[in-house]
Amino acid sequence: MTRRIAFQGEPGAYSHQACQDARPEMEALPCRTFEDVIEAVRSGAADLAMLPVENSTYGRVADIHQLLPLSGLHIVDEAFVRVHINLLGLPGTPLDRIERAMSHTVLLGQCRDFLQTHGIHRVTAADTAGSAQHVAQAGDPTLGALAGDLAAEIYGLDILARHIEDHDKNTTRFLLMAREPDHSRRGDRGMMTTFVFEVRNIPAALYKAMGGFATNGVNMTKLESYMVDGSFTATRFYADIEGHPEDAPVRRALEELAYFTSYLNILGVYPADRKRN
């Protein structure tokens, strides 16, 4: 039976590209929302979920940190995808015919210099691959789309200008999630552990909770806060650390963290991606 990996967006989206890069042997399953991606895995319609969590230019993907702890899924891998943005148009269309370019607002913002230089007006759309699909169906030679190579291939569009993004290191980090956890040691670049926690209501609780990682020499690569249920007093934190929970320094740090927290949930233990800096 063919295994499936679910992603949010239309075929040809960057999440679809991430699926092909990370799990080329699996069938990619497009879903309308992040919640639909999670439900596809929970229901058994898919084996893995491919979820974007952060972009090197625009930071955290909105709402994703709230979704992960509630998903019931477990992080089993990560993938870094270099986001190359192209201007796509109808076959045979020259670049100077394009008057408007449509895409997700994030991509439009990442190509400001190119669009301004060529006098191309921005048109905001729901997603990147959907924009390419619209251009292919509309048949308007003055309308282009900002999307990746895969979208051009799927919808039969020409790449009129390649790699037009303003920042040459624009990268999105994805997490692969499954119904069951996998804490086995794998890969050749070490392990990562991701967890969320809420500190106890005592003075300097966060400072004391973080002290265990410093004293045990555990590198914390990410620490971000987010509110729970819109409350200003129930702040939770999302963290990535290098190492496996069974490593003695990590185990001691997590034990100390638990003493100062009212909530601690390990979301996944997984190998560090080769593209992680």
From TrEMBL:
Domain (ACT): residue spans on this chain: 194-271
Keyword Amino-acid biosynthesis belongs to the record: yes
Prephenate dehydratase domain mapped to chain residues: 4-179
Top EC class, one word: lyase
InterPro entries tied to this protein: ACT-like_dom_sf, ACT_dom, Preph_deHydtase, Preph_deHydtase_CS
SUPFAM superfamilies listed in its UniProt record: ACT-like, Periplasmic binding protein-like II
Molecular function via GO: prephenate dehydratase activity
Pathway: Amino-acid biosynthesis; L-phenylalanine biosynthesis; phenylpyruvate from prephenate: step 1/1
Family matches, as Pfam families: PDT (PF00800)
Domain of life: Bacteria
GO cellular component terms listed in the entry, alphabetical order: cytoplasm
Record's keyword annotation contains Amino-acid biosynthesis: yes
Protein name as annotated: prephenate dehydratase
Catalytic activity: prephenate + H(+) = 3-phenylpyruvate + CO2 + H2O
Protein EC: 4.2.1.51
GO biological process terms held by the UniProt record: L-phenylalanine biosynthetic process
Keywords: Amino-acid biosynthesis, Aromatic amino acid biosynthesis, Lyase, Phenylalanine biosynthesis
